[in-house]
Amino acid sequence: MNMHTATHPRPADPAIVFTGCGLMSAQEPQLAAARRSGRGSAKPAAERREVKVKGKRVKTIDVHAHCLIPAACKLVGENAYKHHTGGIIIENEDAAKRLRDMDAQGIDMEALSINPFWYRADRDTAAEVVRLNNEGLVEICARNPDRFVAFASVALQFPDLAVQQLEHAVKKLGLRGAAVGASVGDAEFSDPQFHPFWRKCEELDILVFLHPQGTPDLARRLKGNGVLENVIGNPLDTTIALSHLIFEGTLDLFPKLKICSAHGGGYLASYMDRSDHGCLTFPHRCNRTLKKRPTEYLKQLYYDALIFTPEALRHLAANVGSSQIMLGTDYPYPWEDKAVDHILNTPSLSDDERIAILGTTAAKLLRIK
Fold first, then answer.
1. What does each C-alpha distance from 136 to 64, 283, 298 come to in angstroms?
2. DSSP secondary structure string, 147-172?
3. Cis-peptide into 332, omega within 30 deg
4. CB count, 10 Å around CB of 338?
C-alpha cells in the first residue's frame, strides 16, 4: 500500500501524543521499577526485549494502543477533548518514550487507534478532524514503519462520509483498518444507516477495532468510588454493541466482517450461553430468525487479551477460540504493563497458541510482514 504525506498544508510535526501524559507519568514509576528489578523485561532497559517461544523469536503486535492528534482535538473544543481523555490535559510528546516502553515490555509493533470524540460534531468539523487524524497517523507510521501501523478514523455519524474516508484511508494512505466506538450518539451499529459502512469494511477486507466509550445512560448509578463508569461501563458498552450486531442480523448480512473488540469483548463471552436461551425462553420478544445460534457468532469475532488473569484468558479462549484473540495493552493507560507475560504465563495455552495471540494473528489481519 502507498504510504504518503497528504497534499493539504499542515504543520511539519503532527504532534501525535500517546493519550494522556498524566497517565504516562503515572505509569512510568511502575515501568521503571520493573526495569530495575528485571520484571517485565528480559534485558536491561536500554535494550529491546526479544520475546521467544520454543526458542524462536516471536514478533509481538499490540492491537490496542491509544494516541491523539492535538490539532484535531482542538477542533471540537476543550470540553469534548477533556471528556474523551478523562479530564487529563495532554502535552506534546513524540514517539521516543512510547518506543522505550515498547522495548521494555517486549512489544515490537503497535496498531495505533484514536477513540472517537467527534461523533457529535457537524459534518465539516468531523471531516477535518478525521483528515488531521489520519494524516497524522500516516506520518508517525512513516517515521517508524517497523514499529507502528494504524487504524483509520471515520466520521460514522455521517455514514456516507465514513465510507469515503475509509476507502481513502485504506487505498490511498495505507492505513490498515478502522477504529470505531461502540455506538454513534444514540444509534446502535446494527441500525441500517450503517450498513454501507459495514459493506465497505467487507469489501476492503479490513479489521475494525471497536473500543467502548462508556454507558452515559447509567451515569447516575455508576457514580462514586471505584471508577465504575470505566470498570463496569466500558465492558458493558462493548457487550451491548456486539449483542445488537448479533441479534439484529448485522453479522448475517455481512458475514465476512472482521471486528476486534477491546477488553476481551466485554462481558459477552463470559456469559455467552445466556444469549442462546433468551429467545427460547421469551419467543414473543424475538422477531428475527438468525442463521446461527447467538454464541456461534462470537467465534467469528476477534478480541484483545486485556483481561488480566490466566483463568480469564483460558475461559475466553475456550469460548471463542484462541485463534480469535490478540495482544492488547491499552497503552498509555496503566491497566497492564506485562501484557506479553500475561500470554506467556497462561498455562492452558499451547506454544502455538501463544505465538498466534502474541503476533501472527494480528500480522495476518493487519497485513504486517
1. 18, 49, 33
2. TEEEEEP--TTSHHHHHHHHHHHHHT
3. yes
4. 17
Q: pLDDT value at position 13?
A: 41
Query: Does 60 fall in a domain?
Result: yes
Using the structure block, give the residue that is written with the C-alpha cell 425462553.
281
Domain containing residue 82: CATH number: 3.20.20.140
Answer whether residue 9 is part of any domain: no
Matching residue, cell 469515503: 164
User: Is 271 domain-assigned?
Assistant: yes
Let me know how long the chain is.
369
Query: Which residues, in sequence order, are bridge partners of residue 259?
Result: 208
What are the CA-CA distances from residue 134 to residues 3, 18, 143 (Å)? 11, 15, 14
Total domains in the chain come to: 1
DSSP for 317-353, written as a single string: HHHH-GGGEE----BTSTT-S-HHHHHHT-TTS-HHH
pLDDT at 46: 56
Q: pLDDT by residue (tens digit) across 317-345?
A: 999 999 999 999 999 988 888 999 999 99
Give dist(CA 272, CA 279) in Å, integer. 14
Query: How is residue 193 written as a grid cell?
Result: 444507516
Question: How far apart are the C-alpha atoms of 130 and 72, rounded to whole Å?
Answer: 8
Which of 90, 61, 81 minimizes the C-alpha distance to 177? 61
Euclidean distance between CA atoms 164 and 135, whole angstroms: 15
Residue 202 host element (H or E): helix 195-204
CA distances from 161 to 54, 127, 190, 356 (A): 47, 8, 18, 35
> How much is the CA Rg of the chain, to the nearest whole Å?
20
Q: How far apart are CA 91 and CA 7, in angstroms?
A: 27
Among candidates 216, 258, 257, which has minimal Cα distance to 240? 216
Triad 312, 315, 317: Cα angle to 5°: 110
Residue 30 forms part of a structural domain: yes
pLDDT digits (tens, 9 = 90+) for 70-121: 899 889 885 655 555 544 434 445 678 899 999 999 999 999 999 999 999 9
CA distance 108 to 213: 27
Domain that holds residue 253: 21-366
Q: Is the sign of the CA dihedral 115, 125, 20, 149 positive or negative?
A: positive
266 vs 344: CA distance, rounded Å? 22
List, for the chain, all residue ranges whose pLDDT scores fall below the cut of 50.
Answer: 1-14, 20-44, 86-92
